[in-house]
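dumping this here before i forget
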Amino acid sequence: MDSKAVLSRINTENIEFVDFRIVDLLGRQHHVTVPAFAVDEDTFANGIAFDGSSLVGYKGIEESDMVAIPDLASAYIDPFVAAKTLNIVCNIHNPDGTPYARDPRGIALRAEAYLQKLGIATDAYFGPESEFFLFDHVRYASGPSGSFFHIDSEEAYWNTGKEEKNLGYKVPNKGGYFPVQPTDSQADIRNEMCTLLSEAGLKVERHHHEVATAGQGEINFRFDTLTRTADHLLLFKYIVRNVAAKHGKTATFMPKPIVGDNGSGMHVHQSLFDGDTPLFYEKGGYGNLSEMALFYIGGILHHAPALIALTNPSTNSYKRLVPGYEAPVNLVFSKGNRSAAIRIPVAAVTPKACRIEFRTPDSTANPYLAFTAMLMAGLDGIRRKLDPRELGFGPIDKNIYDMSPAEKADIMSAPGSLAEALAALERDCDFLMAGDVFTPEVIAAWIDLKRGELEQVERTVNPKEYELYYDL
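structure:
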């Protein structure tokens, strides 16, 4: 879509405002809104100036002038603003017009260009399954006089004893997969989310209640190319959060907001295509996978300890990545096996639907950086012919959770903490910098930001410590 077409749309659809959206290094969106009458072709060509020093992970105050350049193909109508508003995703440029190296969306675009330059494929497709919770109430605080969090949900099993209305049909601990109404009390809210997602341009495939109690849900939308899927994931989170707020609820994509029940992951389906030809399919191969697909898997599993610093970048991520909660901590691949870090879907799969599913990531990741990092690891595997079978990454076609310690002795596990993952990224980051996709500056900035978060958490007194140590 060119500028004339967008301006025509603004006029014919009576758009009152245009909202320009950017994303910081951590993955949070920010926006600036311009009256539609002030938007013209120069606006689209020259962009919107903003202060880069006010965004996490961007420039210092002494060099803070930056420009948001709209990607007009990303435009959609905002369903949550009273005045009719057109939202447009932007890329970040320096004042001299060059792309800003730390712009996450720019990094994703460089990865797609690098893929085509290698001649391995024309497109990389990604399809995330981003789980979330809808709570009715959340409170939290952290300070010198106290530290706590408190959540509640009308679905939660811990509410069956309240002296209020009829409190039957609660979701048991780990018992929330696919129940019908009235146990699934949030079907109408997810329906509304799906409607708005579709109106905004996403192709919704299905939705359902997830395993955990207290309102865990999942909505799946159709895969797309790397950068577009990252755009769609941020739009998805925006719509989920705002629909929840409309209904007096709050949505969270935290990996582990509830102690003792399943967490929320972001399983990421991936495949490579050459035009319309799928490159991951080979009939008769393991899981009907091609040699290229196996090498791609080898790259992801080989680089997984470093990769996970970008796909699971919060301290909370590692409270999900523990055995016993269907968490994919085992760095192996397998067909149809959800206890492996990489699952090969085999049910109702056509050649074009043949793909791999990396199950370890979660939605605290910046999708532009996480998807790019996965692609770069996979491409490194293809270039170096990293066969996962020869590297000891499987396949393992049994429930790994039920294996004995002796049987699991040779199976690598995901890092046990953010500190471990960051250390691995520091050691193993060259694969990310191939083709100048990531830069040393970006990786260093990411590690510094995340170590700062880690330090904050480590220095905060935990209520559990009072329980364990107060009377010693």
